[in-house]
Every structure is written in C-alpha cells, then in structure tokens.
Design a protein that fits this description.
By secondary structure, the chain is an alpha+beta fold. The protein folds into two domains: about 5-25 and about 60-165, no CATH class; about 175-365, Nucleoside Triphosphate Pyrophosphohydrolase (Alpha-Beta Complex), CATH 3.90.79. Strands 1, 5, 6, 7, 8, 9, 10 and 11 form an eight-stranded mixed β-sheet that branches. A three-stranded mixed β-sheet has the order 2-4-3. It has helices spanning about 5-25, 70-80, 110-130, 135-140, 145-150, 155-165, 225-240, 255-265, 295-300, 345-365; strands spanning about 40-45, 55-60, 85-95, 100-110, 175-180, 185-190, 205, 210, 265-275, 280-290, 320-325. The chain has ten helices and eleven strands.
Length: about 375
C-alpha cells in the first residue's frame, strides 16, 4: 500500500470513528467547526470566563483504578522511560448560576492510560479490525471497555457517564489559544506534534497545550492548583523551549513580562468552554490568552523557539504563526480539520477566535 492509499485509508477510518461516536452519543451534540465539519467532542460553553472560577474544590482521591493494562504494557515495551506523573483529574462537574466548573482530585498518568487512553485505542482497533461496511452495533461489540462503562446507555445517558468522571481517572488537559498582537494583526500558534509523543503524535495542535498537573507537594496549594500558573509554565516550555521541570516560570524574562501584562491589562486570560474528548472520555479546559501590547512580541520574537521535544523540528518557527482571519485551517485538508488535528485544540481556536477578532476591532476603532 503506497502513502496515498494509507492516507486515504486513515482519513476514512477517522470519518468512521466520528460517525460511530455520533451514533453512540448523539449526532446533534458533536462539536462542529465553521465549515460544518464534525469533531469527536462535545463542548460546554456555559462556563465562567473567569479562569479562577472554572475550578471547583479539590479533594483526596478515594477511588481505586487498575495499575496495569495491556495498553500500558505495550507502551512500556516501546518506551521504558514513560513517566508516571501526577495529574489533576475530574471528580464531577457542577453547574450553578455562574456556569459549569470542574471539581478535581489527583491521579497519575498510568491510571489515565489504563482507564481513558485505553478507550481511544480500543476504539481505533475496533474500527481497523472490522470491515468498512460493519454496522455501528458490530463495532460496539468489539469495545468491551467502553460498553462496560456505559452498559446499555446511549445518547444523553451515555454523555452523563462521560461528564460524571465515573469509572476512570480522567486527567484534565488545557488547550490555550495564545493570540499576540504584532502591531497590525493578531497571530496565534499551530504546530505539528512530534511523532515520538505518546498522545496526539503527528497531529496538529495549538500552542501551548498541556496536562493540568500539580507542581507542589500539596495539590491544593493555590500556586499549583491554578490555570494561569500552569499556562505560563507551559508557555516557557513550548514556545521558548525552556527546560521542563519545577523551576518558577517567572524566572524567565518573557514570562515575567507576560504576567505583568496580565496584571496591568496589556493581556488577558479567558475561558471559552470545557470540552469532553469522546475518543478517550477526558475533559479539556479551553482557554484564550490575548496579548494586546505589541511590544511583548517585538521584544521576544527572536527568542521564540518551539519545544524540540513536543513539536516537529526542521521548519522555521515563524511557519507556526497563523492570522486570526485565516479560516483555511478548518477546511478539508487544513491543519485544524478533524482528521489532522487534536480536536480540542481546534475547538479552543474556533471558540476563541471570534473573541480575539473583537479585541482587534476595538483596537482599530480606537485609532480610526
């Protein structure tokens, strides 16, 4: 099979996966892009825009999960250096007058592999192992883990299982649309992920994106249980290739400068929604960080360097910049179409771009 046939087969399988998820969870709930393409997600937008309000309380984990699985064994055989890091995971979602927020506990990467990542791999293998004309019911029979989670529940009832956090250690992730004013326009960052990564390898994603992880001994420590601090730390790693670790990101001048802009109004951080990735049944916080002061980019353009561990190297870093007015990324063949990207990254861009454009219109109006 040549490369063209492999690509066509891959794209066909991805379309079948989305159709199956629509059958199981409801076609009308799947997230759609500006060109009508369906993503394997559901998204809640009735959330507080305040990044401090999106997180509810934290509590000790009282549930127990498998410590091994056939998938983890396969992954460890391929990569003996897998790190079983701590993660913040979903307990439940609460909805009040101000919108939805996530209540969390802590887990580990291996627990997420054994209860969430394994659902995605099981789904992919069920699709590839059966004939193209197999029915969705036949495909579901080949997914014992997902069937065990949902039982006979479909549609809205199955979605309740997904949002509840029941039966799995669902590590929370964050996709942040980072839009920067360059003096004339706003630009954001999209990059192809490295083939060496365990999750989303080879797919396009917005930068930065991250797993929400504790950085202190006490997970309830406000400096650790913080979206803003997490995003700033990941900015240092992914956009400036700073060393990954526990070092305070404010030790770097570009991040210290960015935090100052967040404090004085030259930049702002908003939450646009919460996505549930139906492939692996993990939640993702969708954020948008806008830098209105063009001097920040002017000062640090020469320092921009995408993480060589996270993203494909060999391309100029400037090629990862996209105009907020360019919708070509969301059409068939574009970097952020469902078959080529990490879907939550596309959702973060789709929800955040209108807000960024509104900011740009205000700037233009102020000078007209």
């Amino acid at each position: 099979m040549d490369k063209l046939d492999k690509d066509l087969n891959h794209f066909l399988q991805q379309d079948i996966i989305v159709d199956f998820l629509a059958w199981l969870y409801g076609n009308d709930v799947l997230f759609r892009g500006p060109t009508g393409l369906k993503y394997p997600l559901v998204v809640r937008t009735n959330v507080s825009s305040n990044p401090h309000r999106i997180l509810g309380d934290w509590a000790e984990e009282t549930r127990s999960f498998p410590q091994s699985s056939w998938l983890l064994a396969e992954m460890q055989q391929r990569n003996s250096y897998l790190w079983n890091g701590k993660t913040y995971v979903l307990r439940y979602i609460d909805i009040d007058a101000e919108g939805a927020c996530l209540h969390c506990t802590t887990g580990s990467y291996f627990e997420t592999v054994n209860t969430c990542t394994i659902l995605e791999v099981e789904l992919q293998r069920a699709i590839t192992s059966l004939p193209i004309n197999a029915s969705h019911s036949e495909r579901y029979e080949a997914m014992p883990l997902r069937r065990s989670l949902h039982g006979r529940r479909k549609g809205a009832k199955a979605l309740e299982d997904a949002w509840s956090g029941r039966g799995r250690s669902a590590a929370i992730a964050i996709s942040c649309l980072f839009a920067v004013h360059d003096g004339q326009d706003y630009r954001y960052f999209v990059r192809q992920r490295s083939a060496n990564l365990a999750d989303g390898s080879g797919q396009y994603h917005i930068v930065p994106s991250m797993v929400f992880q504790p950085t202190a001994e006490d997970p309830w420590n406000p400096a650790s249980y913080s979206l803003q601090n997490t995003i700033l730390r990941e900015m240092a790693e992914e956009l400036f290739d700073r060393e990954e670790g526990d070092r305070d990101p404010l030790a770097y001048p570009e991040i210290r400068d960015l935090q100052s802009l967040l404090l004085d109004g030259g930049a702002s951080l908003q939450i646009s929604g919460i996505a549930m990735d139906l492939l692996c049944l993990r939640p993702e916080i969708l954020a948008v960080l806008v830098v209105r002061d063009p001097q920040w980019l002017a000062r640090y353009t020469s320092s921009l360097c995408f993480s060589r561990h996270e993203y494909v190297s060999g391309r100029p870093d400037s090629e990862g910049w996209c105009s907020v007015d360019d919708d070509s990324l969301f059409i068939r063949g574009g970097e952020l179409e469902p078959r080529r990207c990490v879907a939550t990254g596309a959702a973060s861009a789709i929800l955040g771009l209108p807000w960024v454009r509104q900011q740009h219109s205000r700037i233009l109006s102020a000078y007209s």
